[in-house]
Amino acid sequence: MLVNPRCSTVLLGYVNHQGNRAIVVDEPGVTRDRLYGRSYWGDQEFMVIDTGGVITLSKSQAGVMEELAVTTTVGMDGIPLATREAAIARMPSMIEKQAVAAVEEAAVILFVVDGQAGIVAADIEISDWLRRNYSEKCVILAVNKCESPQKGQMQALDFWSLGFSPLPISAIIGTGTGDLLDLVCLELKKTEGLDGIEEEENKVPAIAFVGRPNVGKSSILNALVGEDRTIVSPVSGTTRDAIDTEFTAADGEKYKLIDTAGIRPRAAVISAGSTTGSLSVKRAFRAIRRSDVVALVIEAMACITEQDYKVAERIEKEGKACVIVVNKWDTIPNKNHESTTHYEQDVREKLRILDWAPIVYCSATNGTSVEKIISAAALVEKERSRRLGTSILNQVVREAIAFKPPPRTRGGKRGCVYCTTQAAVGPPTFVLFVNDAKLFSDTYRRYMEKKLRSDAGFPGTPIRLLWRSRR
Ligand code: GDP
Which stretches make up the EngA-type G domain (predicted)? Predict the structure, then answer.
């Protein structure tokens, strides 16, 4: 599977007729069902989510989508609501919200038209919408129902006026579908750079330093980088802008360090007239989005606040790896082993949502343990992009079920897991194909996540378990 660098949890691909198709039900709140499937083309393997149609198509076109089952790529974590709502506001009425969400995050958009019907008004509207809003994305225009090669070329020619190069295909007899797949693969690779794997290997992990003002984010960065790269001041909120710094660790590994402005308590944000304060909150959230790992900095002597918790929630929601950094450790008097244990208990209690994140205790002032933040970040970043072998994964799940089977419902039904696959990395995302997702309670789902963590690791990164009913 290729991973789109612009979208951390994106599934790419194509379900072809011969590929394994597994039909699954949708997440609550999503209007359409999706198809998940593993597919191959040449030496490329793809995991796919089919949104069940990019657009609300006319009946014949919907049929084509069924036949061809071509998909856009779909991220599993949400896109910014504002972006989505703006896009929804711009979209023509016939395009579904669900489709907008898919197109927003897609690496390649496949726009299927009916070659026998010729251009219809909906095609023009959709192509205008795509060109207006998604000019930076690759749109492949597939002209279906072009059964005859010669006639098909002529049929496809008509569609040039939509502004994309038309590719004649026939979903029923397979004409042109190989070329279409080649093109899809090529375009997917392009979005990854020339070679997706190489790109992945060369990608410099980004570590965002976030936390309330004055906890010592800039001081930590200065201690790491070894120069006064941002103004450090005892006045709360002095460092306002997010600053990116290239950093080479002692072992030669490169990182991008993202320094953010302090996150003010909400009250302060409101009283500050929502200028610099609210901007800095937004910047911090943006920095989290841009990052692979978040170093959540808290101050040893200060309490963990609601604001810290909100940031923690955001980190989890965005699926980012995390290291909790307890700075100003030098200010704790008479430290011993117990102070660390005691402090850790407090942090775990108050930041339960990040119970998987390692804690680093450091002092930016005297430089103690600051480099541990980088080594911890490197570790959690690896975990976030780790792929677990299918057989190991299934073994872990099988053993978890054997140890504690899902309880029977009152009606005597019992949940049953057929198979499990890792659908994505960044964060690791597992799809459990089951008889009926409703038969697995929240408690059982939490148990399974815990089991997966205890048996297969993944420290420092959120993991996602998706339960899909087979129909
Ligand atoms: P930021 O707003 O989170 O970027 O915090 P700064 O880096 O600007 O630091 C705020 C204040 O805390 C400055 O006066 C720093 O000298 C001080 N400070 C930062 N790190 C430490 C530390 O490890 N120990 C102590 N004692 N003071 C620190």
Answer: 205-385
- Output the residue whose Cα is nearest ligand 1's atom 14: 234
Q: Ligand 1 centroid vs 251 CA: distance in angstroms? A: 26
Across the chain, which distance is largest between two alpha carbons, in Å? 85
Nearest to 17, CA basis, from 71, 89, 69, 88: 69
Q: Is 214 in the pocket of ligand 1 (CB under 6 A)?
A: yes
Backbone torsion region of residue 187, taken as left when φ is above 0, otherwise alpha when ψ lies between -120 and 50, otherwise beta: alpha
Helix (H) or strand (E) holding 75: strand 74-75
DSSP state of 307: H
Compute the distance from residue 349 Cα to the ligand 1 centre, in Å: 25
* pLDDT tens-digit series, residues 3-50: 222 222 222 223 333 333 322 223 333 334 444 444 456 555 444 445
In this structure, the chain runs to a length of 471
- Nearest residue (by CA) to ligand 1, atom 6, is 216
Ligand 1 atom 8: the closest Cα is on which residue? Answer: 232
Alpha-carbon radius of gyration of the chain: 25
CB of 330 shorter than 6 A to ligand 1: yes
Output b/e per residue, 120-139; b: 16+ Cβ within 10 A: eebbebbbebbeebeeebbb
ipTM of this complex prediction, to 2 decimal places: 0.99
Residue from 210, 215, 219 whose mutation best tests the ligand 1 pocket (most atoms within 8 A of CB): 219
How many Å apart are CA 369 and CA 329, to the nearest integer? 10
Helix (H) or strand (E) holding 418: strand 417-424
Task: Measure 392 CA to ligand 1 centroid, in angstroms.
Answer: 45
pLDDT tens-place string over residues 234-290: 444 444 445 678 888 888 899 999 887 444 444 443 333 444 445 556 677 888 988
AA identity, residue 101: A
Buried/exposed code over 83-93 (b: 16+ C-beta within 10 A; e: otherwise): ebeebeeebee
DSSP character at residue 235: S
Would you say the CB of residue 280 lies under 6 angstroms from ligand 1?
A: no
Q: Which parts of the chain sit beneath pLDDT 70?
A: 1-106, 189-202, 227-243, 261-282, 470-471
pTM attached to this predicted model? 0.60
Contact 51, 72 (CB under 8 A): yes
If you take atom 13 of ligand 1, which residue's CA is the nearest one?
234
Q: Determine the atom of ligand 1 nearest the C-alpha atom of 232.
A: 8
Neighbours of 333 (CB within 10 A): 7
Per-residue DSSP letter, 368: B
Q: Kind and range of the H or E element at 243?
A: strand 243-248
CA dihedral sign of residues 286, 287, 289, 294? negative
